[in-house]
UniProtKB/TrEMBL annotation:
Domain of life: Bacteria
GO molecular function: peptidase activity
Topology relative to the membrane: Single-pass membrane protein
Record-given protein name: Protein HflC
Family stated for the protein in its record: Belongs to the band 7/mec-2 family. HflC subfamily.
Biological process (GO), any one: proteolysis
Keywords: Hydrolase, Membrane, Protease, Transmembrane, Transmembrane helix
UniProt-annotated location(s): Membrane
């Protein structure tokens, strides 16, 4: 039979083998790349996912190989036309050389700090070469590409590849925005006043022209009416004269009847005339002949 000591030694040996085997294995995830360190010195870089072996005394450091975000706080930049800009930008990057990254920076947090400094410097350099209009409207896409290229060249020494740089917002500072808004408001009010003045002048011209044309039209109409009225009066007089020449008694009777109609209104029939006046001759004699006065006797 085996002695108890032999069993214990065997158990310890198996336990040692298990421990050594466990310390010799490590796993690389699909989203990671691993650096193998021997007494703090890098000896290998593993990028393939899966189970891998190492010396039991070696250690490993996992580094993310996915695209990482870099959120940059708002920064002020001065354009070439000396206008101050508040720029809100962000970047996307990934670690392409894990060994260089570990030797130069060492961690994601340190990389974010360093890239923030480099991004701010690139923003100021690129935006300082163009005008405010180029930044906010005309060449924004090209400017972001230039900033990305500069940042990528500077980050290459740290084993980092900059994938993209985007400018969320590029605007004037608040106090400048208010001044620009007020200036734009004043300019628009001036233009509106000018348009109103031009419209008022045009309206006055149209009104004056219309009044002048109306005056001419009314004058022509009055002239034509007077001519027509004169022609009518002449024709009336001609007809009266013709009628008078045909029957003077009837014409005198007609004129008297017209005078009665015009003079004897329904609301006032008072006249201050002598009863034997020629106006009332048809009242005393239907023929219209005045009675002959009887001479006084001696």
């Amino acid at each position: 039979m085996r002695s108890p000591v032999t069993g214990i030694v065997t158990l310890l040996a198996l336990l040692l083998v298990v421990i050594v085997g466990y310390m010799s294995l490590f796993t690389v995830q699909q989203t990671e790349q691993t650096i193998v360190l021997q007494f703090g010195r890098p000896v290998d870089v593993v990028t393939d996912p899966g189970l891998h072996f190492k010396a039991p005394w070696n250690s490993v450091i996992n580094i993310d190989k996915r695209i990482l975000d870099l959120e940059n706080p708002s920064q002020e930049a001065i354009a070439s036309d000396q206008k101050r800009l508040v720029v809100d930008a962000f970047a996307r990057y990934r670690i392409k050389d894990a060994l260089r990254f570990y030797q130069s920076i060492g961690s994601i947090q340190a990389a974010n700090i360093q890239l923030t400094t480099l991004l701010n410097a690139a923003l100021r350099r690129v935006l300082g070469e163009v005008t405010f209009i180029n930044v906010v409207r005309d060449d924004r896409e090209k400017l972001m590409q230039r900033i990305r290229d500069q940042l990528d060249r500077e980050a290459d020494g740290y084993g980092i590849q900059v994938v993209d740089v985007r400018i969320r917002r590029a605007d004037l500072p608040e106090q400048n925005s208010q001044a620009v808004y007020q200036r734009m408001k004043t300019e628009r009010e001036r233009e509106a006043a000018e348009f109103r003045a031009q419209g008022g002048q045009k309206a006055q011209e149209i009104k004056s022209k219309a009044d002048r044309e109306a005056t001419v039209i009314v004058a022509e109409a009055n002239s034509q009416a007077e001519q027509t009225r004169g022609a009518g009066d002449a024709e009336r007089n001609r007809l009266f004269a013709e009628a008078y020449s045909k029957d003077a008694d009837f014409f005198a009777f007609y004129r008297s009847m017209t005078a009665y109609e015009n003079g004897l209104k329904s609301n006032d029939t008072r006249f201050l005339l002598r009863p034997d006046s020629d106006f009332f001759r048809y009242f005393s004699n239907p023929s219209g002949k005045m009675a002959t006065e009887t001479p006084a006797k001696p």
